[in-house]
Amino acid sequence: MTAVIASLFLDKSKLVYFVPPVILIILIIYLRKTKSKISPFFVFGMSLIFITDILIFQDFEKHFVWIASFTALNLLSFTYVLKKYLIKSVLKSIVSIPVLIAALLVVYVSYAVINLLSSSIPSEMISYTIIAFVSLGVFSGILALIYINDRYVNGVILLASGVFNIFQMALSPINEFFYYNRTFTVLIVICHILWVYLFMKFIVEAQVYNIKRAL
After folding, report:
1. Is the alpha carbon torsion for 133, 137, 142, 146 positive or negative?
2. Which among 48, 63, 97, 189 counts the fewest CB atoms within 10 Å?
């Protein structure tokens, strides 16, 4: 709430003192709850988010290449974290309506953002943008598969995390390069914190439905 309130009244550059600490707090919560079952890939991904947030609020355009690169690495790290939940699931079908809808959504959002920014940023930045959104597509696809398998009690939390992530990734470059608006900044901060927190919550509390429900 402090970070959100700060985004309402303070200059964007000042948010470097509010948002990164929230990410650090979420990581500490994860470490306290998992203890001996800590995933190094999750810790690595969270570290990348922490660094990326600092770069974003310092100078988004100047550090964009690093921001896009770290974002891609973070999403791939989190994808690896989700791997074990996918393996334990009984895959109904890779080609299913929810997965296709998720894939089309990510493809459409990626195309719309890249097309909008193509005239506003240097061509070399476009390639890094594509890499980041491809990583988003891979992450969202795995997330969608886990959700439609409906094996976990808190699967809807994972879905919400993915939706918030897509929204903040789509809106961030538009807000920075095309049309800056404080309301967008507030929404981005809210979605950013929620997607990270909810993803952590799923990882920590993932619980398979009981046998009676499965039958």
Report:
1. positive
2. 97
Least Cα distance to 60 among 154, 10, 129 occurs for: 129
Nearest partner of 77 among 41, 31, 26, 40, judged by Cα: 41
Q: What is the pLDDT of residue 88?
A: 53
Q: Using CA atoms, how far apart are residues 24 and 39, in angstroms rounded to an integer?
A: 16
Beta bridge partners of 152: 208
Question: What angle, rounded to 10 degrees, do the helices at 19-34 and 2-9 form?
Answer: 170
- 179 token code pair: 């049309």
- Residue 213 CB-half CA count within 13 A: 8
Using left for φ > 0, alpha for ψ between -120 and 50, and beta otherwise, residue 181 falls in beta
Condensed to tens digits (0 to 9), the pLDDT of residues 61-84 reads 889 899 999 999 999 999 999 988
CB atoms within 10 A of CB 168: 21
Task: Give the model confidence (pLDDT) of 133-166 as tens digits.
Answer: 889 888 988 888 888 877 788 888 998 999 899 8
Contact 31, 204 (CB under 8 A): no
